[in-house]
Amino acid sequence: MANFDHDDAPPNSAAPPPPASSDALGYDPNFVPDSVKSFVVHLYRHIREKNVYEIHQMYETSFQTLSERLFKDTPWPSVDAVAHYVDNDHVFCLLYREMWFRHLYARLSPTLKQRIDSWDNYCSLFQVVLHGVVNMQLPNQWLWDMVDEFVYQFQSFCQYRAKMKNKTEQEIALLTQFDQAWNVYGVLNFLQALVEKSMIVQILEQEKEGLEQFTSTDGYDYNGGSNVLKVLGYFSMVGLLRVHCLLGDYHTGLKCLQPIDISQQGVYTSVIGSHITTIYHYGFANLMLRRYVEAIREFNKILLYIYKTKQYHQKSPQYEQILKKNEQMYALLAICLSLCPQVKLVEETVNSQLREKYGEKMIRMQRYDDEAFAIYDELFSYACPKFITPSAPSFEEPLVNYNQDAYRLQLKLFLYEVKQQQLLSGVRTFLKVYSTISLGKLANYMEVDEPTLRTILMTYKHKTHAVDGDGKIISNADLDFYIDDDMIHVVESRPAKRYGDYFLRQIVKLEGVINDVDRIKLE
């Protein structure tokens, strides 16, 4: 239901949505239409009965339909207006407000007070889950959306707070008064507490030994228990990866995700938004840590999956976000393959889509001139996460905007890495041609002296190797070399040719032709 990575509108986009004030478009927070009354009563009943299927239908379909029909430009009725229809149930009211704020963020522009109120609601909701007795079963989709929206609203708040230039005195007073709202430590502490209290890391460990069931039941509890804490803890690991990526701390982000084996299907793949968010951030973190092969492998898998399944999500409210993330991951794959030309790791279907979208740009990116840097800049800026500065602003005059600072720093670090690869493309071109070549001859070709060439070759070795999550040194190179008595010996890994893909595509084409022929009625 929630968008799994809303982005701030670009500077020149259409007018922003109207602020969500109570008098906007004659909105009365206390008026509850009959259809909403029926919705909350039924949802409350299904939650009490642990009827996950019906909760999912109401959450995914009914809530969307009512929002589209009755609340396109206004918030839903206030929680106080609906509370007496649900026995003033404290937990249900927290869940309702969580949905209320999510709808507000998606359709309108929240005020600062509403951003702070949403933080308070998340605090109350997570406190109940962590320290209360929660006896509910909720759909994975809803539990994922909670974690996803929590991180999104944190990101949105940091971006909002960093635009200090046009803040009113009232806004500055509120920011000073509620300086703990959406505090980075508070956000990280909640996510970490959910991981620890749920004991999800131990559960996943025990599952490997056959002592627990979690993945096989998609996290649901069929013995009358609750799935809420366990599944929130599980998705919080993905939330932590995302927060650390937004902060530019890629090592820690990947460490937080380690308990989830992403080489296998898991609960993270049971929700399309979670699946895409996990792999997008996992791939991006590996790209920034120079683990290009790992990034290429995972981008290839998820892009192939989206290619095969996207038609099933056309009616989903997340469809636009799926397509956007799909495009961003193709851009990241283009960057990875330009820095580490391991095309053999990419399926034919994904490769042909990539060539269609970025084939021409990828050829230009190999040149390492100003135009190539401009393309790297363009693709990175389009595909990177919306980085944030988590620290509180300076309230001293003159007030300045600093919402772009974190992005500029990450872009600078990335382009610095690209620049260092500039010399290496020349070395690689020559090494591809020779199986053995003397240092003197290669230095001559490259128009450098031998000591400089040795430095370049050492740089090549360094830049084509990285340290993986287990501390082992891994190679990203499609060719390797060693030097013996001033002779360079090149070792190229030759991929085994795969004929299967080709034949499968031809069989599908042939079946299409046969079907077309069968439809022709002969006179």
Automatic annotation (TrEMBL):
<dbReference type="GO" id="GO:0003743">
    <property type="term" value="F:translation initiation factor activity"/>
</dbReference>
<dbReference type="GO" id="GO:0001732">
    <property type="term" value="P:formation of cytoplasmic translation initiation complex"/>
</dbReference>
<dbReference type="Pfam" id="PF10255">
    <property type="entry name" value="Paf67"/>
</dbReference>
<dbReference type="InterPro" id="IPR019382">
    <property type="entry name" value="eIF3l"/>
</dbReference>
<dbReference type="GO" id="GO:0016282">
    <property type="term" value="C:eukaryotic 43S preinitiation complex"/>
</dbReference>
<feature type="domain" description="PCI">
    <location>
        <begin position="298"/>
        <end position="497"/>
    </location>
</feature>
<dbReference type="GO" id="GO:0005852">
    <property type="term" value="C:eukaryotic translation initiation factor 3 complex"/>
</dbReference>
<comment type="subunit">
    <text>Component of the eukaryotic translation initiation factor 3 (eIF-3) complex.</text>
</comment>
<keyword id="KW-0396">Initiation factor</keyword>
<protein>
    <recommendedName>
        <fullName>Eukaryotic translation initiation factor 3 subunit L</fullName>
    </recommendedName>
</protein>
<keyword id="KW-0648">Protein biosynthesis</keyword>
<dbReference type="InterPro" id="IPR000717">
    <property type="entry name" value="PCI_dom"/>
</dbReference>
<keyword id="KW-0963">Cytoplasm</keyword>
<comment type="similarity">
    <text>Belongs to the eIF-3 subunit L family.</text>
</comment>
<comment type="function">
    <text>Component of the eukaryotic translation initiation factor 3 (eIF-3) complex, which is involved in protein synthesis of a specialized repertoire of mRNAs and, together with other initiation factors, stimulates binding of mRNA and methionyl-tRNAi to the 40S ribosome. The eIF-3 complex specifically targets and initiates translation of a subset of mRNAs involved in cell proliferation.</text>
</comment>
<dbReference type="GO" id="GO:0033290">
    <property type="term" value="C:eukaryotic 48S preinitiation complex"/>
</dbReference>
<feature type="region of interest" description="Disordered">
    <location>
        <begin position="1"/>
        <end position="21"/>
    </location>
</feature>
